[in-house]
Amino acid sequence: MVGHIILHRDIMEWEWYQSPNVFRVYIHLLIKANFKDKKWQGKLIKRGQLITSIGHLASELMISAQSIRTSLFKLSDSNAIVLKPTNRFTLITIVNYDNYQTAKSYSNKQNSTQVTSYQQSNNKQLTTTKERNNNNKANKEKIEVRREKFKKQVFEHSQYDFKILNGFYDYWSELSSCKEKMRFEKDGFFEIEKRLSRWVKMEKDNKSAVVKSKESKKVKGNR
């Protein structure tokens, strides 16, 4: 594999920049993604896409399959990638790939700085007001009380496996760097039932992809 990717310094402001596994997985996907449309086993894999699997990524990055699965979920949930699992592999699309990986967009990045700064300043007051309102609401209860309340709400959905609920709770109750908010509290709207449904679906799709990958390896090994 030859060539390079463009990585702008503003990635340091990205929410997953300080998460070692998530950041590493994302950079790996950027490197592995097609730079131009290609055909693979009769399928057109477009620019900014790649074919892989949980097991394959775990092997390439020397990270556990569970860590890969969690990282992909976080990237998908924050709209950095789009996952499309099949019975044999997973098709991953890098969202806004062309915005980052073209020389034109790179040169325009500096030219648009003033415009972006102006837009950000206009939006800053609205964002600040919203954050202030959210902070006021969040601070009405101590964080420990809110975590217990959230945990109770999650585990009320007893139709799901305990392991699923525990993983969901651990992820969404993670505290911010200032220890004042949980991850789910940063969202303007958070409906546990719908989020759980998506979480379970992704878990099933990823497990299915891993099983298919292992079966494929066994078949190849027996030949």
Characterize this entry briefly:
This protein is mainly α and 223 residues long.
Give your account of this protein's structure.
It contains nine helices and five strands, in the order αβββααββαααααα. The chain has 223 residues and is mainly alpha-helical. A three-stranded antiparallel β-sheet has the order 3-5-4. Strands 1-2 form a two-stranded antiparallel ribbon. A hairpin with a 4-residue loop joins strand 4 and strand 5. Helix 2 crosses helix 3 (65-77). Residues 112-118 have low confidence and may be disordered.
| Overall geometry | globular
Strand order of the largest sheet: 3-5-4
Low-confidence stretches: 112-118
Order of helices and strands: HEEEHHEEHHHHHH
- Range of helix content: 55-70%
Residue fraction in strands:
5-15%
pLDDT averaged residue by residue:
79
Number of strands: 5
Note the topology:
Elements: H1 20-32, E1 38-40, E2 43-45, E3 49-52, H2 54-61, H3 65-77, E4 81-85, E5 90-94, H4 97-100, H5 103-111, H6 113-138, H7 143-155, H8 162-172, H9 192-222
Antiparallel strand pairs: 1-2, 3-5, 4-5
Helix pairs in contact: 1-3, 2-3, 7-8
Key structural traits:
two-stranded antiparallel ribbon, 223 residues, mainly alpha, globular, single chain, 3-stranded antiparallel beta sheet, Arc Repressor Mutant, subunit A
